[in-house]
Amino acid sequence: MTDRSLITLAAPIAMARRSRLLSLALCVSLLSACAVGPDYQRPQTAEIAQYKEAEGWRQANPSDSLARGAWWELYGDQQLNGLVDQLNNANQTVAQAEARYRQSQALVKSARAAFYPTVDFSAGKTRSSQGAGSSSSSLSSSASGIRDTYSTELGVSWEADIWGKLRRGLEADQATAQASFADLAAMRLSQQSEMVQNYLQLRVIDQQKRLLESTVAAYQRSLQMTQNQYRAGVSGRDAVAQAQTQLKSTQADLVDLIWQRAQFENAIAVLIGLPPAEFNLAETQDIPKLPQIPLSLPSQLLERRPDIASAERSVIAANANIGVAKAAYYPDLSLSLSGGYSSSTSSNLVSLPNRFWSVGPKLTLPLFDGGARSAELDRNEALYDETVATYRQTVLDGFREVENYLIQLKVYEQEASVRQEALDAARDSLRLTENQYKAGLIAYLDVVVVQATALNNEQSVLNVLQSRLLASVQLIAALGGGWDGQLQVSEEQ
């Protein structure tokens, strides 16, 4: 290779080096530039010092079991704990939300990739033809007028984020990913809450079933006694008919519980990802105890509830998108560097005479778009206002739900006490009435009335217990469950 060739080869290399140094210096200066658009500030929301119905409740401490995440363990039921574990691993609704979160993670990776240069390599062959003329250039072409061209090219391009468009876009995608993570937590909490409520209702039905079974046995004994008295001429046929009516009605109520229990059992099967035909839940003797629920402070509700966290992250994303829309008014600067070889033959393709290269910046500024950028900015500002209103409404709804469940539990506690007193009185009345009937002092119709009253009070006590258990689950969910509120998307994403 001649010295002239070496000089010719060194020239583009030196220019390329200078271009890289210039690009590096430009990168350093651009990285310190400010991104256009507003920086995020949390929207103001309603503030309260304490819950209106919080009197008598204790505040949550870091050592409380509610803060550890597995809030369902407050009910002290090992079978329930196992079912929730299965739900966490196999629930298909949660799996859908988890897949949506992974999609948002991929968008964050894509947004980060925009900060780096893109490198492309191409190699190809083209065949072209040009009509023959009288110029001497046609003598260098083949007789057929067809020319083959072989080429290889390596290109590098990089967009300078002068106005922060890429940074605002990454900020929006990160906030969207965090909102998606909070949505996943909210969906998991919702499914856990549904599981626990279904399980508790099923266990109350088991208790109701045992109550009706014992009542049916008692009514059968009453019917037998009434039939014996009828045969002895002590009582009339109407007493036997009343005893039979009462027995059959209670047996019908017992049958009705079978399909109710089956519905809850099937719902639990679907929640843990199983077809109902493959799942059975055996009866137990006990109902989970009502737990003591520690309250978080009102200000902590904003951090603990995943739906509130998701709504706020949506505000962050909308705020960042305003910056992206404003950056569209400014010019885009991109740097490109390309080089390669091109020849009419493949044998000497990679050789000095066949080289080509190009390097340089490119500035792009739209001059007229018919108002498209202005309309996009207006749309993003309106979207921001919408997300702020949604966030504030979500906070208000959260406070409302907590207050509702607090008063609900307080009223149910008072009702349970009164219902128990009524049940104790009904049991006393039933015992006295049955003794009077056996002594022949009253008619059997009086016994039927008192028995029905006692049964109704037994069922009322169970119904209130069920309502208290369900309200406790709903309060825990309204307080954010055991979610720790961590929303950071890892750097690998």
**How many strands, what sense, and barrel or not for the largest sheet?**
4 strands, antiparallel
- Provide mean pLDDT, rounded: 84
Succession of helices and strands: HHHEEHHHHEEHH
The oligomeric state of the chains shown is single chain
The CATH architecture = Up-down Bundle
> Could you say how many structural domains there are in total?
1
β-strand number: 4
Radius of gyration: 39 Å
What is the name of the CATH topology? Outer membrane efflux proteins (OEP)
Give helix % range: 55-70%
Which percent band covers the strand fraction? 5-15%
Tell me briefly what this model is.
The chain is an alpha+beta fold and 493 residues long. It has helices at 3-31, 78-90, 92-113, 165-231, 237-271, 298-304, 306-327, 372-438, 444-478; strands at 118-129, 146-160, 332-343, 355-364.
Q: Can you describe this structure?
A:
The chain is α+β, with helices and mostly antiparallel strands. It has one domain (12-126, 147-478): Up-down Bundle (Outer membrane efflux proteins (OEP)). It has 9 helices and 4 strands. The protein has helices spanning 3-31, 78-90, 92-113, 165-231, 237-271, 298-304, 306-327, 372-438, 444-478, and strands spanning 118-129, 146-160, 332-343, 355-364. Keywords: Cell outer membrane, Coiled coil, Lipoprotein, Membrane, Palmitate, Signal, Transmembrane, Transmembrane beta strand. One of its GO terms (cellular component) is cell outer membrane. Pfam families: OEP.
For this entry, give a set of tags.
10% strand; MdtP/NodT-like; disordered N terminus; 493 residues; disordered C terminus; RND transporter; Outer membrane efflux proteins (OEP); alpha+beta; coiled coil; elongated; single chain; four-stranded antiparallel β-sheet
